[in-house]
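Researcher: We're reviewing a set of sequences before deciding which ones to prioritize for further study. For each one, I'd like a predicted 3D structure that I can look through quickly. This is NADPH oxidase 1. If possible, include the structure in token form so it fits the rest of the review sheet.
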Amino acid sequence: MGNWVVNHWFSVLFLVVWLGLNVFLFVDAFLKYEKADKYYYTRKILGSTLACARASALCLNFNSMLILLPVCRNLLSFLRGTCSFCSRTLRKQLDHNLTFHKLVAYMICLHTAIHIIAHLFNFDCYSRSRQATDGSLASILSSLSHDEKKGEPHPHITPTVYMFTVTFDMVLSSVNSNLFLFLLIKK
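Model: Here's the predicted structure for NADPH oxidase 1, in token form for your review sheet.
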């Protein structure tokens, strides 16, 4: 165990810093949306799921920025060969580039799941507040933009159909963007 720590201390430090940044970004964004006064009324309608969705979206953006860096061949060649500050320890870390790429992909999957689930709860909370007739603040706020003369925008769309449409749209756009990135990288 002692030799492993001596040999891989930089990899462990790098992963701890990366995980720490993810935790910091999530907690900071969560507290921002959970405590800020300008989101008070939105929190009354949606609860804490707004903060959870926004925090996971920030972590998704951060990790999406990082996912292609470990597989940029020109950048890795530059850091290995031409940089004078590239020590043996850093070169060892650069040899684990695919492992880090996979870890970032797993983190993206985790935050995507959190983000989707939070939005499903957002929809549920909003739907309940729209249907509430108890005069609570959430029901009053959610009905502010509702015009009785116009009716619902799509009366034939039930919440189940709407959730299926939203989920299908998210999957389709994800496949589209991943296909685009795949074609872009293959060139």
